[in-house]
Predict the structure of Ferric oxidoreductase domain-containing protein.
Amino acid sequence: MFGKHDQIRKILLTLVVATIALSTNFSLAETTQDSDMDGLTDDAEITTYHTDRTKADTDEDGVLDAQEILDNTNPTDPGSNLLNTYKLDVAQPLFRTGSPVMWYIGRISGIAAFVVFTWVTCFGLLMTSKFLLKFKVFSAPTALETHSFSASIIGLALVVIHAGSLMFDSTIKLTLPEILIPFTVIRTFKSALGFDLNLPISLGILATYLALVLVSTSKLRGKVIKPKIWRAIHYTSFGFYLLFLFHGILTGSDSNQLWAQGIYLISVIIVTTLLLVRIFAKKYFIQSIKSQVSAEK
């Protein structure tokens, strides 16, 4: 089905499936866990009510968080509870109650997309490094084919699933303009790490558009776009990786979890290592050539 690069594609698909399985496992575990025993699951406290999952009474007003939700008061405001005969009209939050299925799909597909784009970036560095190709772990054609296959099919498909699920689910309901146009998410909700969502979501949108530019120009290389122009455009792939990295870290509801932080850290280490090898290996080869030329003279 996949042709001569069948083995490397199987590895990629296995990696994606493993990432999805890992994310699903942690997501389902979070669905029922209640660390502070206040009647609200950790997942609900983080994503729906923005309360402290380690404190049964987040605002320390004498009323448990779950009871304040039932009373329609604000569990993060000590002045908002029925004990004070004061009831606060809570504005409709970004995260809503309801079936979390689509939201979990959004989380899982987002993490899987990041893993795939890490793969894409790594093979791009492998493909352009003569030093790394000398080890013959992957041939240049295999690196190129895998790089293109990942970016054009799996990576972008996961991004579409990620964005679509966040628009149609009942937990985080982004509008179409908010998904397509950067800097249009004007809300007060904070991510798991405490960042406002507007900028991080915009980074993801910009990264997606940049990915589309990189993929489309690669298809037109040598036909419509000259190699030098294509090469100049392709240098922005480093910006593309950084945009996706910061988007994932700053918006991810799992970014405060060790397993998610591990994925980001491993990705950064691998990409940085390959980049440094490419840079210093290139300098080494240039110096070697200059030395040979000088010796011949």
